[in-house]
Amino acid sequence: MPEAPPPLAAEQGFDALVIGAGFAGLYQLHALRDRLGLRVRVLEAADGVGGTWWWNRYPGARCDSESHAYAFYFSDDLLQSWDWSERYPQQPEILRYLNHVADRLDLKRDITFDARVTSARWDATAALWRVATQDGRRYAAPFLVTAVGCLSSTNMPDIPGREDFAGAIHHTGEWPHEGVDFTGKRVGMIGTGSTGIQAAPVLAETAAHLTVFQRTANYSIPARNRPLDEDFKRWAKDHAPEIKQAMHSTPNGHAWPIGERSALEVDAAEREAAFRAAWEKGGLALRATFRDILTSRAANDTAADFIKARIREVVKDPATAALLAEIDHPFATKRPPIDTGYFETFNRDTVALVDIRADPIDRITPTGLRLRSGAEHALDVIVFATGFDAMTGALLRMDITGRDGLALREAWAAGPRTQLGLQVPGFPNLFTITGPGSPSVLTNMPVAIEQHVEWISDCIAQLRRTGAATIEATEQAADDWVAHVNAAANATLMPQAGHSWYLGANVPGKPRVFMPYAGGMARYRAICAEVAADGYRGFVTAGQAAPVPA
Ligand code: N01
User: Fold this and answer.
1) Among 170, 230, 304, 405, which is least packed by CB within 10 angstroms?
2) Which of 54, 215, 372 to mutate to test the pocket of ligand 1 (most atoms within 8 A of CB)?
């Protein structure tokens, strides 16, 4: 048997390692390297920057935050040097933006691409994180920051027969870079979350036939996407400070305010007019029409009924309309998609909807899909728009081991436990950008990312000033924070969507815990600032490193 090659020597000499080169990793590199003067290495599994926007290249992929708010606000130079073309930009444009950021800040020289992290272990003796990548390389640094995204570990359902299928199978989250030609093909798409709802109308344009396999009907609001005119672009640049301020003061990190009135304090005509105006304007702001849509079931029902009526209005075939409008959870308790012609797509002769709640998929056959009833659907391509092992999947996949050999998988066996979504007890000097327990996916992501990067960077700067070698969340703080995260979720209707990925319910065997912090971004930001100002309450520092003057 050939001898195994000796392990590569660790690449030492770094102050911090960052995993991932999407929005979060790029800004974290810039903040630690260019503001604190640290030696930083970013390890990225892909061969380019972009994170989610590198992987998710499926037809129709675009952002559902408005472009002028879906950008870095920490740098006026970045704001002034970039123009978005559309209200909701497509994936290639967002990828170009992130390359622009990386080039403008000269970040790529400190990123190792094609470097998928396979393990990270805390070495208590040396007070270092020791990280290995798939190609056998080793790295070490005192600080480890995960910037792996909340929706990056794909969820591929274990449907039997995949290997027998004669056609092609694709998951939207790992889409081939050369694209897929659907011309003349019979396409089956499984999943009707944000991704499936974006993809279906585009797939239907070229496919000979599209069958959408729906397990749970979903709300969707028209995006009303449009090109941005020069006046708007100028306005957004000139008003960047006000836009930033607005994003920092709302619960969801978007630049629009939450309604002040209850949906129940106005009469039916006024309520209908408010929903109608939001529907015509398009986008996620419909859920902010009234203040209590996410907290009162009666208020929520008014929004849900309004949207269901629109679906029935648009979809011509009554049976299909009924199937699309029979939605079993309150509006916005799962992440509400926005769409461009989703419901209209079902009026095409070449598009069919199949209810796999009533008649589940039994197996994949060489020629398509067979349902439990025995019904067969002949297909050339199967698209899995089945989402992600959200929030914890990408972290657990990396085999992270903390103090005393504690595996993260073990620490989180009953669900994620963090202090503020930023640190885990037993894992010194590990920071998790937009980790479970932080607002993350309930907000406009760049806003949440900027806040975490800045908090983490300030924390590391403070450690260096004081000469402490390590910082770690306490068990008590994590217990308290988990209780608060649960209380915040229970103050909303969100836990009522029992099959939501917010609860981990989409992945068989995953603990059912509401993972993001539902108390609002503005409130969360204040809590984090207060914890830091109070000497990093809920964290312990230890050890002695050489203090670094500010
Ligand atoms: O994933 P999802 P997604 N058999 O989990 C179904 C963000 N995003 O990729 O509801 C059959 O929402 C599943 O059915 P059910 C956004 O935050 C952002 O669409 O579990 N069906 C559901 O219909 C979003 O929320 C943008 O019953 C199965 C679908 O697959 C998040 O990503 C764009 C199944 C999965 O929906 C995830 O969205 C796109 C099975 N075994 C996404 N397993 C932006 O624009 C799952 N399904 C920024």
Assistant:
1) 230
2) 215
Residue with tokens 């027969």: 161
CA–CA distance, 69 with 87 (Å, rounded to integer): 10
Nearest CA owner, ligand 1 atom 3 = 387
User: How far is CA 209 from each of CA 24, 100, 130, 427, rounded to the nearest angstrom?
Assistant: 39, 38, 51, 51
The answer to whether the 11-153+390-542 and 162-229+249-384 domains have the same CATH topology is yes
- Please name the helix (run of DSSP H) or strand (run of DSSP E) that holds residue 477, with its range, or none: helix 475-490
Q: Using a cut of 0.85, tell me whether the model's pTM lies above it.
A: yes
Nearest residue (by CA) to ligand 1, atom 40, is 157
Question: If you take atom 11 of ligand 1, which residue's CA is the nearest one?
Answer: 215
Distance 197 CA to ligand 1 centre (A): 9
Per-domain residue ranges for the chain? Answer: 11-153+390-542, 162-229+249-384
Q: Are 469 and 127 spatial neighbours (Cβ–Cβ below 8 Å)? A: yes
pLDDT by residue (tens digit) across 14-42? 999 999 999 999 999 999 999 999 999 99
Helical spans, DSSP H, in 371-474:
393-396, 408-411, 445-466
- 3-state secondary structure string across 434-463: CCCCCCHHHCCHHHHHHHHHHHHHHHHHHH
Sheet strand arrangement including 16-19 = 111-112, 40-43, 16-19, 143-146, 430-432
- What pairs with residue 183 in β-bridges? 207
Name residue, tokens 């960077």. 457
44, 126, 427 from 468: Cα distances, Å = 29, 14, 16
The whole-angstrom separation of Cα 386 and Cα 215 is 10
Q: 151 CB under 6 A from ligand 1?
A: yes
Residue found under tokens 């909340």: 150
Instruction: Note the pLDDT tens digit of each residue in 327-366.
Output: 999 999 999 999 999 999 999 999 999 999 999 999 999 9
CATH of region 11-153+390-542, choose from 3.40.1190.20, 3.40.50.150, 1.10.3470.10, 3.50.50.60? 3.50.50.60
- 3-class SS at 402? coil
Q: Among candidates 362, 28, 314, which has minimal Cα distance to 213?
A: 362
Burial class of 166 by CB neighbour count within 10 A (0 to 12, 13 to 18, 19+): exposed
What would the pLDDT profile of 111-165 be if each residue is shown by its tens digit?
A: 999 999 999 999 999 999 999 999 999 999 999 999 999 999 999 999 999 999 9
Distance 51 CA to ligand 1 centre (A): 18
For residue 319, the 8-state DSSP code is: H
Alpha carbon of 441 to ligand 1 centroid (Å) = 13
Map residue 127 onto helix, strand or coil: coil
Closest ligand 1 atom to residue 173 Cα is: 9
Class of domain 162-229+249-384: alpha beta
